[in-house]
Automatic annotation (TrEMBL):
One of its GO terms (molecular function) is tRNA N(6)-L-threonylcarbamoyladenine synthase activity. Belongs to the KAE1 / TsaD family. NCBIfam families: gcp_kae1, T6A_TsaD_YgjD. Gene3D superfamilies: 3.30.420.40. Fe cation binds at residues 111, 115, 298. HAMAP family: TsaD. The gene is tsaD. This is tRNA N6-adenosine threonylcarbamoyltransferase. Binds 1 Fe(2+) ion per subunit. Residues 24-305 form the Gcp-like domain. It catalyses: L-threonylcarbamoyladenylate + adenosine(37) in tRNA = N(6)-L-threonylcarbamoyladenosine(37) in tRNA + AMP + H(+). It comes from Persephonella atlantica. Its EC number is 2.3.1.234. CDD domains: ASKHA_NBD_TsaD_bac.
Length: 329
């Protein structure tokens, strides 16, 4: 079976063709990074305009690269939530048009669920596992007991981890997106400033919640002093974020006695986060899994795969009358 996956929830236009036996047969992502760099973040109306321009060329390229015909597609999976509504509707409308004209089923996919299940595209992980989703819009901890069997443990109360990276990069005048830039700059710095580790020691109701907005403000205060090198600020900030992300995940591993951890979303590409998780997994005794880099940031492959899995495991599809949602638990 061949499933087409469409992702347009934020600023990347992603289309993938996933084959049930061969895996990914094409995966095209058109990034709008250069466009949004000017604003230091994603500007929704511009993102929507670019999706409108890109969706058909990206789709066309994905079909050509997979060496199939549109009529070979068996089902169409699309991100329905969460995300920028003006961006989501471009992917959803395209998916509906394809489903209607090709007379093929339409499968709804939740963006966060897809980030988590992207891990299975290249490796096997046994249930249950703890999932830490860290992206531009989300920082969340779950217990994943099986497909469609998820327990939410906690999430961010304000800024997401990726958002904090992007905002700190803006404060330091480094460009957009901030994550990869800070990741490499931090390698040249030292932890000269001891920044707060928000909620890390919280044993109450915020035990598995996150908060990064105060940390960003603390970085701004330190940067304004004008005495530290950017490398050292970047390094100190990254150590604080990584301490919190790893610390809370390890707490969940211990509390629930779960031995597998999956880290997903754009920030899971971070080299220091990967390094620290490897160290902690050996110390505490759990296995940690990261998707390959091309599956960390937004892409159509995670949507196609999760759609395929939904179809195979539940057979559930949707009619043509559904809408996208900016938020959806
Ligand atoms: O998953 P994603 O592509 O989009 C959302 O669903 O939000 O994540 C994008 C986020 C951005 O905030 C970007 O700065 C961050 O992921 N990111 C990184 C790295 N690569 C991307 N953050 C830290 N280190 C990286 N290497
Ligand atoms: Zn994402």
């Amino acid at each position: 079976m061949i499933v087409l996956g469409i992702e347009t929830s934020c600023d990347d236009t992603g289309v993938c063709l996933f084959h049930s036996e061969k895996g990914i047969i094409s995966n095209v992502v058109s990034s709008q990074v250069k466009l949004h760099a000017e604003w230091g973040g994603v500007y929704p109306d511009l993102a929507a305009r670019e999706h409108t321009r890109n969706i058909i060329p990206v789709l066309d390229r994905a079909v050509k690269e997979a060496k199939v015909k549109l009529s070979d597609i068996d089902a169409i999976a699309v991100t329905v939530a969460p995300g920028l509504i003006v961006s989501l509707v471009i992917g959803i409308s395209s998916a509906k048009a394809l489903s209607w004209s090709l007379k093929k089923p339409l499968i709804p996919v939740h963006h966060i669920e897809a980030h988590i299940f992207a891990i299975f595209i290249e490796q096997e992980v046994h249930f249950p596992f703890i999932a830490l989703v860290v992206s531009g819009g989300h920082t969340e901890l779950y217990i994943i007991r099986g497909f469609e069997d998820y327990l939410y443990l906690g999430g961010t109360l304000d800024d997401a981890a990726g958002e904090a990276y992007d905002k700190v990069a803006r404060i330091l005048g480094l460009g957009y997106p901030g994550g990869p830039i800070i990741d490499s700059l931090a390698k040249k710095g030292r932890e000269v400033i001891k920044l707060p580790r928000p909620l890390l020691k919280d044993r109450g109701k915020n035990r598995f919640n996150f908060s990064f907005s105060g940390l960003k403000t603390a970085v701004m205060r330190e940067a304004q002093k004008g005495i530290y090198r950017k490398e050292d600020i970047a390094h100190s900030f990254q150590e604080a974020v990584v301490d919190v992300l790893v610390g809370k995940t390890v707490d969940a591993v211990i509390e629930y006695g779960i031995k597998n951890v999956v880290v997903a979303g754009g920030v899971s590409a971070n080299s220091r986060l990967r390094e620290r998780f490897q160290e902690e997994s050996q110390k505490t005794g759990f296995s940690v899994y990261f998707p390959p880099l091309y599956l960390c940031t937004d892409n159509g492959a995670m949507i196609a795969y999760t759609g395929y899995r939904r179809f195979k495991e539940t057979g559930r599809t949707t009619g043509l009358d559904f809408e996208g949602k900016a938020r959806l638990r």
